[in-house]
Specification:
This protein is of the alpha/beta class. It has 13 helices and 17 strands.
């Protein structure tokens, strides 16, 4: 072949490959009819950048509002300051990293472990940052907390129950202010509001035990607080974006230990059936409850765990009030794994020769699951109605994360809600990792662009880390 033929062939190949490349439209960035000059973000830990069980430097730097603010800066957005945590271990400790842990059976495997290093403890963690911030996300905050005067008063940390929040103590402008007041003091032109998760989450994390401060917020209180927030934030003409509450029961914290996850050999199943038969016989003959039966049976293969039963029909000691878990019930990630593996929790205690149900505070039964779903649905209705009434952009985070349960394909990457490997959630099983925060930030951008006719560029999610493997 001569050179002329090679040149023609090369040109044809280049043209052919060029025809296979995706077409990328070059849209000029635009703010549409929104003004992002002074953007403030209100919310809870999801807004603050809390991840892996702590509020730490890099996760805070890549919180969803920080990512959003960087994109808004391309269309006229102003400065966005966070109450900086200058420590990779974070405030108060408890940050988790992926490391190696050895269980009670001597098996070593990858697992979330407490990060080595020195966190910012007391009193340093409460030291005022000394400057106004635009990220007003407060870990642990419920909707009503954002309108409470004195929520950042250090003295309130000493009351029982506490009336203040240590995270807000760090950046509150005064002891008597509220999160909402500090937001309004900046005369915002645009706001984001993602609040309400903790109004349900505390109840769920406590296994539905309704402890002080952990009950589901009443709709009267939630509606009043949310209305107050939206009415106040829009009172000066600011535009904004609000987001709803995801299905709390679908996050990894409640789906990593399956209620139907007890795997037995034929021999193990027979031993457990025999053990329960002996207990039933004792209760019938000694305790004096004729015809008593747990209705518990085991087989080779997959079985439901045994759990404590708060509605047990007989007046037996608590340890004997058990049943097998039902489909749809949830076991919390905090359940002691070594107790499940080696002490008989979830089956039978050989040491004490009695049933050993998983304690109620590690289980969400079917009634508690329904309480959570009902509350989330009602709160989300309030959020959507107010967004519509006030003409605000609305982010359906609930649907976004629901789609991730079966696999969410984003920028060619498949994400899911699976713990550790799913790519969205951090190692605490509740909060998103930094890449997950970028996905959420882009959902906010989509909603803002749609509502306000803007063309805000999306963030490149591959620029943000997920879980780091050792």
């Amino acid at each position: 072949m001569n050179r002329k033929y090679f040149a023609i062939l090369s040109a044809l190949i280049l043209i052919a490959f060029a025809g296979c490349q995706p077409t990328i439209e070059d849209f000029p960035a635009s703010n549409g009819n929104a003004d992002f000059t002074r953007y403030v973000a209100l919310g809870n830990s999801l807004t603050a950048g809390y991840a892996d069980g702590a509020l730490y430097k890099s996760a805070q730097a890549n919180s969803y509002p920080a990512i959003l603010a960087r994109q808004l800066a391309k269309v006229g957005g102003g400065a966005f300051v966070q109450p900086v945590v200058d420590n990779e271990i974070g405030l108060f400790g408890n940050k988790r990293v992926l490391g190696y842990a050895t269980d009670c059976k001597g098996v070593t495997s990858l697992s979330p472990v407490i990060a080595e290093g020195t966190p910012v403890g007391l009193p340093g963690a409460l030291a005022p940052v000394g400057y106004p911030v635009q990220n007003l996300g407060v870990p642990g905050a419920k909707a009503a907390h954002l309108i409470f005067p004195g929520y950042g008063n250090p003295a309130g940390l000493l009351t029982q129950p506490p009336s203040a929040n240590p995270y807000f103590v760090r950046f509150a402008s005064s002891a008597s202010t509220s999160v909402l007041a500090d937001a309004m003091a900046q005369n915002p032109t645009f706001f984001s509001l993602w609040i309400g998760n903790n109004d349900v989450l505390g109840y769920a994390l406590a296994g539905g035990e309704n402890n002080v401060g952990e009950s589901i917020t009443s709709m009267d209180v939630f509606n009043f607080a949310y209305n107050t927030l939206v009415e106040t934030l829009t009172s000066g003409g600011a535009k904004g974006v609000v987001a709803n509450i995801p299905d709390i029961t679908s996050i990894p914290f409640f789906n990593t230990v399956p209620a139907m996850g007890l795997v037995l050999t034929e021999e193990q199943a027979a031993q457990l059936n025999g053990a329960y038969a002996q207990v039933e016989n004792y209760i019938r003959t000694v305790v004096g409850i004729p015809n008593f039966s747990y209705g518990i049976s085991f087989k080779a293969g997959v079985n439901p765990f045994v759990v404590e039963d708060r509605n047990f029909p007989y007046p037996l000691p608590k340890a004997f009030r058990v049943r097998q878990a039902k489909p749809g019930e949830l076991i919390l990630l905090t359940v002691p794994q070594d107790s499940l593996k080696c002490a008989g929790m979830g089956t039978f205690s050989l040491e004490k020769q009695r049933p050993y149900g998983i304690p109620q505070n590690f289980v969400l039964d079917e009634e508690e699951v329904q309480n959570i779903k009902t509350a989330v649905a009602n709160m989300n209705a309030t959020i959507k109605n107010l967004a519509d009434q006030k003409g605000l952009a609305f982010v359906d985070v609930a649907t976004l994360l629901e789609s991730a349960k079966t696999g969410l394909v984003y920028d060619g990457i498949t994400f899911s809600t699976t713990f550790v490997t799913g790519g969205i959630f951090s190692l605490d099983g509740v909060h998103m990792n930094q890449r997950g925060a970028a996905i959420v930030a882009n959902a906010f951008i989509e909603a803002i662009n749609k509502k306000y006719g803007a063309s805000i560029p999306k963030a490149d999610i591959t620029a943000y880390p997920g879980i780091v493997f050792p």
